[in-house]
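Format notes (please read before filing issues)

Several people have asked whether sequences and structure tokens are stored in separate files. They are not. Every record keeps both together, in the order shown below: the sequence lines, then the token lines. Line labels are part of the format and must not be stripped during preprocessing.
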Amino acid sequence: MAVKNKEPYQQAYYPPVPTGLTKYMRTSIIWQFYRFWVINLKILKLLIKSHN
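Then the structure lines:
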């Protein structure tokens, strides 16, 4: 089985570049604080269900 050589510097070699919204979501303290609480509430709900 022969493997085709890829030409260097094709688009497939580069990772996708995040959009402005993605960069904002990754760096926004407000968004991260909100997600922190949402995830914690989901875990808390799961724990409460499992201990009943």
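For reference, the curators noted about this record: The first helix runs from residue 20 to 27. Residues 18-50 form one domain.
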